[in-house]
Automatic annotation (TrEMBL):
One Gene Ontology term, aspect cellular component: Golgi medial cisterna
Annotated spans, Disordered: 36-59
Name the record gives this protein: Golgi SNAP receptor complex member 1
Protein's organism: Tychaedon coryphoeus (Karoo scrub-robin)
TM region positions: 228-246
Keywords attached to this entry: Golgi apparatus, Membrane, Protein transport, Transmembrane, Transmembrane helix, Transport
Family as reported in the entry's similarity comment: Belongs to the GOSR1 family.
Gene: Gosr1
Amino acid sequence: VRDCSPPRADLRKQARQLENELDLKLVSFSKLCTSYSSSRDGRRDRYSSDTTPLLNGSSQDRMFETMAVEIEQLLGKLTGINDKMAEYTNSAGVPSLNAALMHTLQRHRDILQDYTHEFHKTKANFLAIRERENLLGSVRKDIESYKSGSGVNNRRTELFLKEHEHLRNSDRLIEETISIAMATKENMTSQRGMLKSIQSKMNTLANRFPAVNSLIQRINLRKRRDSLILGGVIGVCTILLLLYAFH
């Protein structure tokens, strides 16, 4: 970058080049983290026949440090380019209301923010895996040392190893149980909403039942009254017919 402010096109070109480099670096960095975890899982599976320490100054660890430094340097350079683009956009020779320049600057800032977030997330995951493996490696090293130092305690060592595997399996089952519990909670929340809706409808129907019962009672009373009237008329007619017949 020259001492004087470079043209806008040069700044954008430099920004795109740095973004492309960062994209490639971050993809490789993510793959390194994934391969690191997979290689450690493979070593744990072969632990019964592997006497090499689980973690040492491996090429993956050195590669991680190197790539982290390179990505941080690229992020710093891209931050500087974005700052210069902001200065160019806010300079006296550029209209303050130039929407295109502001949109371009904001897009590059968003890209920088996404790359920074992805880098820190991947780096944190890698460090967490390495820290966990260091702890497990120390435990395994102690077990291996104890196993090799006392042949008469092989049975106890095997029990320790089995117990360790049981703990790992329990940890995995706990995670699965938590996932199931979260899904169950969501289903229960959904069902509770449905039950509340049904309860509201039932209350509405229950409030309407007294009016329906009152109407049915009125209908029954009218039918009973009509039956009595009809029975009285039939009785009077019968008596009149009998009196007419006997006279």
